[in-house]
Amino acid sequence: MWNPFKRSDDTLLTASDKQLLVEAIQLAEKTTSGEIRVYIENKIGKGDALSRATEIFFKHKMNETHLRNGVLVYVAVKDKKLAVYADQGIYEKVGIEFWYSQVQEMTSHFKQMNYVQGMSAVIKEIGEALTTHFPYDRATDTNELSDEIMIGK
């Protein structure tokens, strides 16, 4: 089991953990035009988790999806911080309470050392919200953002 808060090496996720998260993203995106990405790094550096998630979101051009419906799940392992950042299109549809509840859900799982399961559960919930507001359209939908897990320093 992956335990990011007790690891001292630079391997933040095993290959198996990465695969589980990619599969969770792909399953969540199957019924929506929305896009979900995961970014994991050791430390935030300066600022807080939401500021760092925002920086990463724009750096990786997640704001350039056609319907502005990209979502980033961010975890800073050594700092024990996390955030969920959503683009304008989906953020406005579900409201701030939804995003707070996703952070709380992930935090709850992390406290029980269920890290990958916690991220997977949140990815599933985000996928359901995206499906409600941005359903998949076979004729027009493309995978605008990679499903691969992004690993920082």
Summarize the structure.
This protein is of the alpha/beta class and 153 residues long. It has 5 helices and 4 strands; from the N terminus they run αβαββαααβ.
Strand content: 5-15%
Tally of structural domains: 1
Number of strands: 4
Mean pLDDT: 91
Overall spatial form: globular
- Order of H and E elements: HEHEEHHHE
Uncertain ranges: 5-10
CATH topology: Diaminopimelate Epimerase, Chain A, domain 1
Q: For this structure, what is the CATH class?
A: Alpha Beta
Q: Can you tell me about this structure?
A:
The chain is α/β, with parallel strands linked by helices and 153 residues long. It has a four-stranded mixed beta sheet with strand order 3-2-1-4, with helices on both faces. It has a single domain, classed as Diaminopimelate Epimerase, Chain A, domain 1 (Roll). Helix 1 packs parallel to helix 5 and helix 4 runs antiparallel to helix 5. About 4% of the residues have low confidence. Strand 1, helix 2 and strand 2 form a beta-alpha-beta unit.
Q: Would you spell out the secondary-structure blueprint of this structure?
A:
Elements: H1 15-29, E1 35-41, H2 49-59, E2 70-76, E3 81-86, H3 88-94, H4 96-111, H5 115-133, E4 150-151
Parallel strand pairs: 1-2, 1-4
Antiparallel strand pairs: 2-3
